[in-house]
Amino acid sequence: MPVLSLLLAAAVSGTEPNPPNWPGSVHIFRPGNDAQTQQVVNGVFQSNGGQNPPFHGQFVKERYAFLFMPGTHNVDVPVGYYTSVLGLGSQPTDTTIKDVYCENGSGDFTGGALSNFWRSAENFHTTPTKVWDGQPTPSMLWAVSQACPLRKLSVAGGLDLWEGRGYSSGGYLSDSTVSGSVVSGSQQQWYARNVDLGQWEGGVWNMVLQGTPKSPQPFCQGNTSQCLFTSIPTTPIIAEKPFITSADSKTFDLVIPQTEYNKVGKSTSSSPTKVVPFSDVYVAKDTDTADVINAKLQAGNHLILSPGVYNLTAPITVSKKGTVVLGIGFPTLISAGGNSVVKVLSGVTDVRVSGILLEAGPMPTKNLLEWGDVANQGPNEPSFIHDLFARVGGPEDQHQHPTQVKTMVEINAPNVVIDNSWLWRADHDVGGVVVDSNNPCDNGLVVNGDHTTAYALAVEHTLADLVQWNGNNGSVYFYQSELPYDVTQQNYGDQKFVSFRVADKVNTFTSHGMGAYSFFRDYNVTVASGFSIPNKPGVSCSNTFTIWLSGNGQISSVVNKLGKAVNSTFADQLSAVCSF
After folding, report:
1. Do the Cβ atoms of 367 and 344 come closer than 8 Å?
2. What is the DSSP pairing of strand 428-429 with strand 407-411?
3. Interatomic CA distance for residues 557 and 576, integer angstroms
């Protein structure tokens, strides 16, 4: 353990049980029990994964966390929906798993991995043994789209981000080592941060690599069928995602990485961390009410949200500086009473909110996550959001059980860093495609706070501006978006909505690698621009683009009347503004 970790460790233990009372949705695997581990893994994948039917498990209620103790596990781990694979060592190399992989969710290449959502793999070492698609050497396969983060991995070999020519639309990789090649294949876009890699191969539309030695050479061209590559030398500010450790399964610790600046490459054993025993951590279950959880937070505990579906009639409220809220196994927080489901109070700093899926409910709701107060914009210690996902619609039929929220995530406080987020108004649900602006949501993200940073931001299909950015000194590194499929010219195009709007009052803002995609499936819609960004000396944007995927209508320009229109006569090519 690094000396700094010891110095920062909690001095006084609390009263929560350690080891905690894990629910049945959390499986702890020990070395030497490979046959039993394999049986559990296979049983979970049978309910939450596979291709029969395609994308099997996409909207099931079961959620799982696989916690692998340090040591060697000679098992194959196929990863399905709502499943987290987590090593419990202090370093990735403490825990070795033979093969961890995610295959296409559909045997049809046009489906491929396009709906492979909500799964994760973190904090372990693997030397892959499986060979995929006739490749010459074994590799780790991770054929996914959004909300499937890879973090803190050590891969002795290659990493394939696609399978068998199937379409894919990811993705996120950070704080990892890949000794061989990362092969992006059919991946439309990808974001990689602080990765030590052998080399990066390929790309379709938008690849952004940051703080990553051996990144590809940057490339941008105004009208092109080639992939844009954005390489940013450093990560200006980051605290890595908190994680759980255990040496013997008898006691557990919560490790909280501290803030780093201008980071290059992955974390090391000397990276600063704070270590908190689980006697100061409350492990919540999906039967808990918000009142129960909030009482534990108010008592000074950190919070682990175990896998499950939480129907909340009041928000989980963070009121103390330095609090960690960490979800494992994609805990899903549903707004059951028109309420936010997570709220960070004004002036509360140095907070971590990580690994959570927010879900809209049936009643009118202002937002699902509300962070701080617009009135408090003074200098604050940074807070961090990791792997935060949200959805409006999907698990319920749009006609029988409609859902709604005005804004999924609202950031009012300053100095908040978002590290990987996908905010999705569902284009399909359990009954089929979503039509006629059902399951309404205006905005995915509204930023009112100054000094907000977003890494790997994706927002799709909301019914007004997908993102509204009102704070100064903001930065975005990678942004992926699709405009809504089911709107009309009257309710969308004529309203002059855009994918990403920076308010006219903003004087300082930077972005790198932002894209807006057009698929007006149901009606003929023309929008004037993909992006609305003020033309000021303190505002700069690199590698901003639009693309027409299919359907009707067009995006007439990229940003502020710059850039070629994308439509059926200019399809499968990028219209890019390389510098603005």
Report:
1. no
2. unpaired
3. 9
Nearest to 166 by CA among 219, 110, 118, 211: 110
Q: Where is 295: in which H helix or E strand?
A: helix 290-298
Q: How far is CA 242 from CA 15, 84, 87, in A?
A: 21, 14, 13
Q: How far apart are CA 140 and CA 127, in angstroms?
A: 8
Structure confidence at residue 136 as a pLDDT band (50, 70, 90): confident
Q: In what helix (H) or strand (E) does residue 470 lie, and over which residues does it extend?
A: none
**Range 495-522 average pLDDT:** 98
End-to-end CA distance of the chain: 46
Structure tokens at 330: 């994609």
β-strands 416-425, 342-344 pairing? unpaired
Catalytic-role residue among 260, 410, 460, 482: 482
- Report the pLDDT value the prediction gives residue 13, as an integer from 0 to 100: 63
Q: Strand pairing of 273-277 and 253-257? A: antiparallel
Distance, CA of 281 to CA of 65 (rounded, Å): 17
pLDDT at residue 252 tops 60 = yes
Q: In degrees rounded to 5, what are phi and psi of residue 297? A: -65, -40
Contact 153, 92 (CB under 8 A): yes
Residue 157, classified by CB atoms within 10 Å of its CB into exposed (0-12), middle (13-18) or buried (19+), is: middle
Cα separation, 169 vs 191, in Å, equals: 11
Closest by CA position to 257, among listed 152, 341, 342: 152
103 catalytic per annotation: no
The whole-angstrom separation of Cα 161 and Cα 19 is 36
Predicted pLDDT of residue 165: 82
Q: What is the pLDDT of residues 535-579, one digit of tens each?
A: 999 999 999 999 999 999 999 999 999 999 999 999 989 999 999
Residue 6 reports pLDDT greater than 70:
no
Dihedral (CA of 215, 352, 330, 83) sign: positive
Q: What is the pLDDT of residues 297-329, one digit of tens each?
A: 999 999 999 999 999 999 999 999 999 999 999
- The answer to whether residue 482 scores a pLDDT higher than 90 is yes
Return d(Cα 395, Cα 373) in angstroms, integer: 32
Cis peptide before 19 (omega within 30 of 0): yes
Tell me the two tokens of residue 387: 């792997």
pTM, two decimals, is 0.97
Residue owning tokens 């010459």: 136
Residue 383 has pLDDT above 60, yes or no: yes
- What is the distance between the alpha carbons of residues 11 and 108, in angstroms, rounded to a whole number? 56
Average pLDDT across the chain, whole number: 96
pLDDT band, very low/low/confident/very high, at 407 (cuts 50, 70, 90): very high
